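>> received
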Amino acid sequence: FLFFKATGKAVVEETSKLAECIGKTRTLLRKILSEGVDHCMVKLDNDPQGYLSQPLSLLEAVLQECHNTFTACFHSFYPTPALQWACLCDLLNCLDQDIQEANFKTSSSRLLAAVMSALCHTSVKLTSIFPIAYDGEVLLRSIVK
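>> returned
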């Protein structure tokens, strides 16, 4: 929480730093959740004691924590229904491009799972995010400008 100081300048500075930190955190979490897992890490043959699978389980724990953090902070990353809709449209567009280009080095399925999990939260009103007569392309163009 931000506490108002005697001068407005300190509040503005703190608010802009907070917004910058939120943006950097969102970018980092999106990147982590969008990266694919190297296939050589997934297939672990001849490991009866589980020594080789320990790094994989640590990776899964980190990815799960990133998922939980992204889901919990989604309302801060995308505070309005329009931004939440734009996030989902942008993500689905990126997934579509990856499929068309057969680019499977990045896998946004974890990020999509986190976004969908956040959208399923009880505080989210899906009718305000997914209106029937809503043109996502117009919104995306207006945000980019």
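>> The chain has one domain: 8-144.
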